Amino acid sequence: MKKNKTIASIYPFPFFIGEGHDVNFSLVNGNKIFSNEEGKINQIVHNNLDKFPQKSMLSGLKENKIQPKDITDWVFGGKGTVQEKQALKYFFNKFKAKDYKVLKRNKKIHYVNHHLAHASLGVWGCGLKEGTFISLDDGGDESYPYDTVWGKFKGNNIKTFQKANKFGWGITRFHNLICESVGYLGNVDNGKVMGLAAYGKVNDELYNKLKKYLVLSNDGFSAKCLFRRNKTQSNYNYAKLKIDSFQQYKIIHQPNPPEELKRITKFFSNLDVAATGQKLVEDITVQTIKNILNKTKSKNLVCSGGFFQNVSLNKRLLDLNLKKVYVPSAPNDAGLSLGAAMYVHMKKFKTKRPSKEMSPFLGLSYNNHEIEELLKEYKLKYRKTKKPWLTCAKLLTKGKIIGWFQGKSELGPRSLGARSVLADPRKKINKAKVNQLLKKRDWFMPYAPSVLEEKLNFFVKEKISCPYMSFAIKVSKNAKLIPAAIHVDNSCRPQSVNKNTNFKFYNLIKEFYKITGVPAVLNTSFNRHGIATIATPRQAIDHLFNGCIDILIIEDFIVFPRKNKVTNSKNLLSEKYYIFIEKFLHILLAAREKDKDIKKILHKSKFFLKSKNVKFNKNFSYFKIGNKSFKIDFKNRTDLYKKIMPKYNYIVNE
Ligand SMILES: [Fe+2]
Questions:
Q1: Could you give the CA distance from residue 533 to residue 525 in angstroms, rounded to a whole number?
Q2: CA-CA distance, 126 to 302, in Å (whole number)?
């Protein structure tokens, strides 16, 4: 990279008017790259009211020993309707950068639109000489509001062939609405609904009905969603308002699917709606991408944009038998500041792209000295070791859940062995343990196995590298060895771990392999429910205090919990219990709403209801499971869980 260039890149533009979630900052200083999401520091998930990533910016500058006045070039996402002069004058002045007029006169302020930034992160990071790129998300942002942009790249040349679906309303929006129809939030819970889909069955009748609302464009390169937003505003969800685990989006929004969609899905279980919606979204996307590849005649595919967090869909792209399918570690908006910076490098500064894939470890880091100071301040019991992976592997085999905090944090939504919670994948109980006692996340969400790169074929037949957990792949071998890291449909979302990019994590898995004969550990993100993946040592210690992990291994320190550690001794629930409720929920909702089609809905599910011995009273105010009676007065899914749980005999101790 150009030695005399120090590029600071911010997404979105400061004081941007419009959606700008996952606010992030990148600094490219000669060969050094720093990139961080502000949400990981502030611990607020999907906050679209953050306007600029000041903590990330100051941290990046500190790490590189750079003053803002040393920054040669500033890169931003589109500014939309904001008055540039006013905004940047204030911003540069506030942060003591060079004067706005000087930077402007010397052409040192650059703008890169949303999708070019998505695409550039993929193109820069993929290590491929040429290929096709596609960027697909919910509709860019207000300054560049398209949902699909695609084209070709060769060397430093990125050529856009088409931008489609102005203001969104394409495939991503369709999946968002499917999420809402099963009681989850579009835009934030799509990964969950993809996970839920594995529990359902694709229903042909439903598929054909939904298909009428997701149609290919005339040229076949994109798709349109024909549903329209429900005009009735949802209420705030005050039950979600917890200041210490602030989920802004989930407080302001509640699932609010279009009436037209509700009329179609109400006859089917949530599980089947999720499965059918997923299948349709996959089929249509694969069709558009095949058409695009036919046009570009390229065998390499680089996919970015939030939509490509859908790892089941990504696997369908692998099945196209291309030379390479690459999805960056941050396909979502978290990667936009870095993507934009790299676009400027490629286009304006003609910097040659690396021939290797980019490392995702680009964020905050802490040295042993800083960490030890903190451990002393908290009067924690700890031990120092030069090889923390040896202790970690042993502790994992003893059933401990470990908080693993090493080196620079990862860029993007997946924890890749820098800020991870780890467990032994050989025991199925560990999935439930991490799910319910530590993370308290949804029962159906799978955990990923992190596997030694050269041992990936110990579990799967595909010969690929997947360092960012981008693909859901069927486990074809040795599935019985890692039951905690395998989803109900026998798939997993593996991370292939490379010795050079993360040697401590690699060493840890290797040591675990030596002891157990299994070259994988269970890896999930380091965060309790409701907050973003953690960034700092203090946050890691907080998790130890909260009982979210058994032991913390942070840089060279093995940190033990205090004696009065919080423990959660609740019974673990079997998946059977949750599956039952998910199959039942749409019927209960129809009963509660006194839906005019309730009899039809009951008829469609008659075999399920009979098999579970469920009966309703005449006016649908009660139902019985066997001889136990339940009032239909639940507020939402969680409330229903709580009301049925104490009476229903699905509570088990595994
Ligand atoms: Fe995006």
A1: 6
A2: 7
Question: Rounded to the nearest whole angstrom, what is the distance from the C-alpha of residue 395 to the centroid of ligand 1?
Answer: 40
Q: Is the peptide bond before 12 cis (omega within 30 degrees of 0)?
A: yes
Distance 565 CA to ligand 1 centre (A): 41
> Can you name the residues that pair with 452 across neighbouring β-strands?
497
* Domain limits for position 508: 368-568
Give the residue among 508, 496, 487 at the shortest CA–CA distance from 402.
508
Q: Are residues 521 and 416 in the same domain?
A: yes
pTM of the model: 0.93
CA 11 to ligand 1 center in whole angstroms: 11
147 alpha carbon to ligand 1 midpoint, in Å? 8
**300-353: per-residue pLDDT in tens?**
999 999 999 999 999 999 999 999 999 999 999 999 999 999 999 999 999 999
Domain end marker among 276, 305, 327:
327
Rounded Cα–Cα distance for residues 295 and 94 (Å) = 48
Distance 78 CA to ligand 1 centre (A): 12
Cα–ligand 1 centroid distance for 305 (angstroms)? 5
Alpha carbon distance 252, 257 (integer Å): 15
Ligand 1 center to residue 415 CA distance, Å?
20
Distance from the alpha carbon of residue 114 to the mean position of ligand 1, in angstroms: 6
How far away, in angstroms, is 593 Cα from ligand 1 center? 36
**Same domain? 525 vs 590:** no
What are the φ and ψ backbone dihedral angles of 259, each rounded to 5 degrees? -55, -40
Same domain, 424 and 440: yes
114: Cβ contacts below 8 Å, ≥ 6 apart: 77, 78, 137, 140, 141, 143, 144, 336
Q: Are residues 395 and 529 in the same domain?
A: yes
Residue 97 lies in a domain: yes
Buried b (16+ CB within 10 A) or exposed e, 481-495: bbebbbbebebbbbb
Q: What is the 3-state secondary structure (H, E, C) of 613-652?
A: CEEECCCCCEEEECCEEEECCCCCHHHHHHHHCCCCCCEC
Domain count, the chain: 4
Asked whether residue 160 is domain-assigned, the answer is no
Rounded-to-integer distance, Cα 216 and Cα 227, Å:
14
Domain CATH for 513? 3.90.870.20
Instruction: Judge if 409 and 284 occupy the same domain.
Output: no
Query: pLDDT per residue over 249-294, tens digit each?
Result: 888 889 999 999 999 999 999 999 999 999 999 999 999 999 999 9
